[in-house]
Every structure is written in structure tokens, then in C-alpha cells.
Amino acid sequence: MKFKRFVATATALVIASSLFVGCGKKEEQSTEQPKQEKVTITLGCWGSSPAETQLLDDQIKKFEETHPNIKIEKQVITGDYNQAMQAKIASKTEPDVYYLDVFQAPAYISKGVVEPLDSYLDMEDVKDFEEFLLEGFKKDGKIYGLPKDFNSLAIFYNKEMFEKAGVKEPTTWAELEEAAKKLTKDGVYGMALSADAARFIPFMLQAGGKINEGDNVAFNTPEAAKGLDFYFSLIKKGYAKQPKDLGEGWNGDALAHKKVAMVIEGGWMIPFMKDAGPDVKYGIAKLPKGDKEGNLAFTVAYAMSVNSKHKKEAAEVIKFLTGKEALKMVAESGLAIPSRKSMEKLYTEKYPERTPLVEGTKGAQVFQFGANTTKIMDALNKAGEKLLFNKVKDGKAALEEAAKEVGQ
Amino acid sequence: MSSKKGTLSRVKTREKIDGWLFVMPFVISTLVFFAGPLVVAFILSFKEYSFLDQNTIWQAKWVGFDNYINAFKDPIFKRALLNTTLYSLGVVPIQLVIALILALIVDSDIKGKTFFRVAYYIPTVTSTVAVSVMFMFIFKTDGLLNKFLKLFGIPPYNWFGDVRLALPSIMGMAIWSSVGLYMIIFLAGLQDIPHSLYEAAWIDGANKWQQFWYVTLPLLRPTFFFNLVVSLIGTFQVFDQAYVVSGGNGGPLNSTMTVVLYLYRTGFRDFKMGYACAIAFILFAIIFILTLIQKKLFGEETQYQ
């Protein structure tokens, strides 16, 4: 009887204590590894299309073939990547190497959670990266991430509609408006435009405006307002419609469902159109020129955690995944534009029709606006909505209100 | 005698220990996953902290009541609070009335009542995200609702894209999706009312309406109170519908920004976890006070038997 009790008590205690152990920190692995022992580097990324997943898997496979002492363990983070990553960083369980979106980079870098990579890099080789991309991951001259690839915006247009209306690829604002006007007929609109700052910022840049100057707001200028006013004038004149007003989820749907003749989107449209609108013959044209060229570039880098226990090996992984061999695979896949200048040619040679995407990066700025990036984006998005709902009289007023909001 | 008593008390102590051991997994998980985070969040609400900080929660800078004071100066928070209040004022009464009517229907002797009970309850067990996506299809510009309205000559509308209509649209969705839950609870309350009371009322000459008014409603009071509290708490914590419909930004023009959505954004997007915790505790205080008021108004236990 007593023995039975003892066993029961002991079991309960073991169960209870195992709960504690589960919550506690994992035992640190011994840092003194024998030379030949395999090191595992965890790689954090978000889930993406099957084609992109395949590309990363192929890159990893190639890495492991050439680096027998390092194993890469991929951790696909589903759901809200930024949220999940913060929780991991707070509990110091983040992967050694992970995707860092240029949009989030200032916050991560200024909080000191990513390791500067300079000491691991060959500075001559770094010159091969597109500078404006690298800029997005720099702080005080140090490099905190190497961009893996990027995409910029371009006009994706329906070729048949263009032929029918006798319209050529627009190269200036005036031509864009003229084309949109001509293409708006028979229930089809010239363009799909959304009140999204990530789409109208290029126009503000094209008008000679700026978004930020370092960590300060610089968009409350007449130039920036001119770009904003032009963008929304296309909607107000009836040549363009918001995708939501057409019953579509986003610009891509509107083009795929032949409800509009033009949309402003990036390279992600290519795999999307293959699935959603295989019968739509589309062309890609550079964004039109205002007073000058202007565009946004969306990029993601590989960054290293400051808490990584195998920094040397983690750096090897980053260098390989952004190296020429891996980026050659990116170029050939055509999924995004490789971040190295030497590889862009490979991309445009294999996919000549996508050349406008690469050419459009002249005058492009990365999708990041200093330390106040999220605030600036919120304020600009709201400025766009205010214009759309006629809550302000013009772009200038909208931008002034937005600048005040960021200042708060 | 005395030795027997001693054994008895020993047995009792043993039983107490055993009892605690049995509930230990639950107690520990509650402490670790609920009470602990609650305390930490409360402390954080007085600090300046983000998950990306390299220093720990304890080392983070103490800012006193600044987070709380800032919240009441923050125009977006005030807007979120207003939206949430409007949402709650709209959803709670309509939801409870409909739920009560449905409960009365499925409690009566209509044919196929089991079917209806299940049918009304299905939205409740459906994920709110799935419901939101479905409603986005119904409410979109060329969606079902607009096609239906077109039959009466009403032009199509971008419901979720309109500053004035976005929040009411979400309210409609919330009512539809959660009414089943309250119906089930009302149904349980209705079936708890002894049949003899209705018989007595009937003998006294009360008609159906009088029976409802003087027997059903007063006896349903505890159930009603429970539903009111749960529904109010639920509506004040609305998050997922607003998140899905607005794509996470509370738009258009903050018209669907709710307190919890704003809290989520400040914590995870603007990296101000301390401020987000302060907002959470303000929300807690509001819900707590409202619940106390409701208890005062509806909560007295009355026995009719």
C-alpha cells in the first residue's frame, strides 16, 4: 500500500517537474566543438511559393555538398513572420541566420539584434552588390545583412487591349494618362491603382520629391505633393479604379481578370499570372518618367543573430547564399532579380522581356525610410486614403497632415 | 481513541497532498502560461520595452505612468476606443435579442428543431478568419450582397472600403457568427425553467405573451446576465475580424481600428511592448468596471422556487 502511494507520488512529481524543465532554457551546447564535428546552422525564413521553396532547398543542398562540416536546418516560420521572430529573439531562440526584410531592418539593426558582418566579408566582393540595396542594411558604415535578391515596380499591361486601342507603352506621365484614358472603355478601366503608399511613392520620387532625409520626414514638399496629386487624379478622372472597387483583392487580380489594362506591380506578378491569368498576354514596361526616374525596390537580406553560437559558420552560410553560385540559381529561376550586378545580365539574357524590371531600378530607392519607416508608411497610407475619400483638398494638405502625424 | 484520531488526521493530510499533486499539472500550467505572463505584462506596462531589446524585462527602463498617460493623449488610441465602444453598443444588444428569439424558436415544438439548433451553432465553431474571408466575398463590390441589392435597383457598394460602412459591416458579421453561442446558453436557461411554473401561469389565465413576460424573462435573468457579460467582454476584445477585413491596418482611415488591433500593432509593428501592455490594462480596467456595473444592474440572484 505504502509503496503504491510512493510510486503514485513520485510519478506525479516527475510529471510536474517535467513541465518546469520544458519551459526552462535549453541546456547550452558545449562551445568547444572538435574540429571534425558537424555544426548545425538554423536558417529562418517565411513560407513562400513552391518554386521559391525549391530554389532555397537547391541552394542549401549545394551548400551542404561543398561544406561537409556544416548542416543547414531550415525553419519555416508560418503566420506573421515579424511577430514570430520578435518572440524568438526575446527568448533568445532565434535562428542563427534569418530573412530580414529591408522594411524591418532599421528596427532590428538599431536594437542591436543582428550581427555586423564586416569582419567576415571580402570588401572587394561586396562591391558586386547593388549599392542602393546594401544601403538598406547599413548603419554607421557597417553592413548588417546581405541582400539575396530584389524586385522593383513596373507597368504590367494587357497586350491585346493595348493593340485594340492603338496605345504604345507609356514613357511619360502625360502618355500614361493619355493611354489610361484611351483604354477606359467597354467596362474596362485603364489602370488599377490602390491607395497604397508602396505604389504611389514612386510617383512622388518621379516628381522630384523625397520621402525622408535620414530619420527625418522630407515628404512635405510641393514636388512630392505633385506626384501624389497626379496619381490620385487618374482615379478621380475615372481612368483608374481601386482593385477593391472592382471587386478584386489586389492589382494582380484585376489584370488577371481583364478588368483593367495596366497595373503597377513587381516581379511577383510573373508566377502569379501564370496561375491566375494564363490566357492574358501581358507585357512589362518601365514606370513612366516624371521630372525624373523614380522607383521602389523591395529586398530581403540574410542577417545573422548576435546570439549565434557559430558565427563563423553562420557567416559561411550567408556568404554562400548570397554568393555568385547561389545568385546564379536565382537568376536562372527568374523568381526575382539577383542582388549582384554581375548576375543581372544573366537574368536579362535568360528573360529578355523582363529587362524593364532591371532597368527600372535606376533612380530606385529601397522600401525603407529610416528609423521612422513604419510611422511614415502609416501616415502616407492615410494621406492616400484621405485624398481618395476627399477628406483633404489636395496632396499638399494631405502630406502636411501626414508629416505632423509622424512628428507626434 | 486518540491514536485512531491521529491516523484519521494523517490520512486527511495525505489526501490533501495527493489532491494537490493531482491538480498540479493544471495549477502549474495556469501559473506559467496565465498568471505569470499577466504579472509580467503588468510590470511591462510601466516600462519602455520591446521584444528586440537586448536587455531583459527587469533591466528595461521604468517610465512610471507615462505609458498610461500617453495612451489618453494618443488620437489613434482614442479613435480605437471609440470604434470598439460603438462596435460593442451595436453588437451586444442586437446579438442577444436575436439569440433569445432563436432560442425560443428552437425550444418550441417546431419540426426539425435539432437541425436548426445545429445550423445556428455552426457559425460559432467556424474560425473567425474563415468567416471574415467568406464575408469579404459577400461584401465585395461584385459580391453576393451587391448583386442582391441590384435586384432592387441599389447601386453596388464597396462595403469594407467605405469609412462609414466598414465598421457596421464587421458588426453584422460578428452578430451572425456568434449568435449561435448565446442561443445555446439561452436554450439551456430556458430548459432550466420548471414546466410547473408555466402550468400555474396557464391556470391563472396568462396568455403566451404574459407567460413569456412574467415567467420566462425573470427566470432567464441569470442566463441573461451571463450572456451579457460574456458578449460584452468578447466585443471589447474584437480583433480577428478587423484584422482580416482591413488587412491589419485598421483602415480605411482607422475606421476599423479596434483597441486590440491597435495594441497588436504597437507591440509588434512599432516595437512598443510596454505601451501595448498599458493599453491592454486600460482595456482590462474598462471591461472590469463595465462588468461590475452589469452585476449591480442585472446580477442579483433571485430564487422563484
TrEMBL record, chain A:
<dbReference type="GO" id="GO:0055052">
    <property type="term" value="C:ATP-binding cassette (ABC) transporter complex, substrate-binding subunit-containing"/>
</dbReference>
<dbReference type="Pfam" id="PF13416">
    <property type="entry name" value="SBP_bac_8"/>
</dbReference>
<keyword id="KW-0732">Signal</keyword>
<protein>
    <submittedName>
        <fullName>Extracellular solute-binding protein, family 1</fullName>
    </submittedName>
</protein>
<dbReference type="GO" id="GO:0015768">
    <property type="term" value="P:maltose transport"/>
</dbReference>
<comment type="similarity">
    <text>Belongs to the bacterial solute-binding protein 1 family.</text>
</comment>
<dbReference type="GO" id="GO:0042956">
    <property type="term" value="P:maltodextrin transmembrane transport"/>
</dbReference>
<dbReference type="GO" id="GO:1901982">
    <property type="term" value="F:maltose binding"/>
</dbReference>
<dbReference type="InterPro" id="IPR006059">
    <property type="entry name" value="SBP"/>
</dbReference>
<keyword id="KW-0813">Transport</keyword>
TrEMBL record, chain B:
<keyword id="KW-0472">Membrane</keyword>
<feature type="transmembrane region" description="Helical">
    <location>
        <begin position="86"/>
        <end position="106"/>
    </location>
</feature>
<dbReference type="InterPro" id="IPR000515">
    <property type="entry name" value="MetI-like"/>
</dbReference>
<feature type="transmembrane region" description="Helical">
    <location>
        <begin position="118"/>
        <end position="139"/>
    </location>
</feature>
<dbReference type="GO" id="GO:0055085">
    <property type="term" value="P:transmembrane transport"/>
</dbReference>
<feature type="transmembrane region" description="Helical">
    <location>
        <begin position="165"/>
        <end position="190"/>
    </location>
</feature>
<dbReference type="Pfam" id="PF00528">
    <property type="entry name" value="BPD_transp_1"/>
</dbReference>
<feature type="transmembrane region" description="Helical">
    <location>
        <begin position="275"/>
        <end position="293"/>
    </location>
</feature>
<feature type="domain" description="ABC transmembrane type-1">
    <location>
        <begin position="81"/>
        <end position="294"/>
    </location>
</feature>
<dbReference type="InterPro" id="IPR035906">
    <property type="entry name" value="MetI-like_sf"/>
</dbReference>
<feature type="transmembrane region" description="Helical">
    <location>
        <begin position="211"/>
        <end position="236"/>
    </location>
</feature>
<comment type="similarity">
    <text>Belongs to the binding-protein-dependent transport system permease family.</text>
</comment>
<keyword id="KW-1133">Transmembrane helix</keyword>
<dbReference type="InterPro" id="IPR051393">
    <property type="entry name" value="ABC_transporter_permease"/>
</dbReference>
<keyword id="KW-1003">Cell membrane</keyword>
<keyword id="KW-0813">Transport</keyword>
<protein>
    <submittedName>
        <fullName>N-Acetyl-D-glucosamine ABC transport system, permease protein 1</fullName>
    </submittedName>
</protein>
<feature type="transmembrane region" description="Helical">
    <location>
        <begin position="20"/>
        <end position="44"/>
    </location>
</feature>
<keyword id="KW-0812">Transmembrane</keyword>
<dbReference type="GO" id="GO:0005886">
    <property type="term" value="C:plasma membrane"/>
</dbReference>
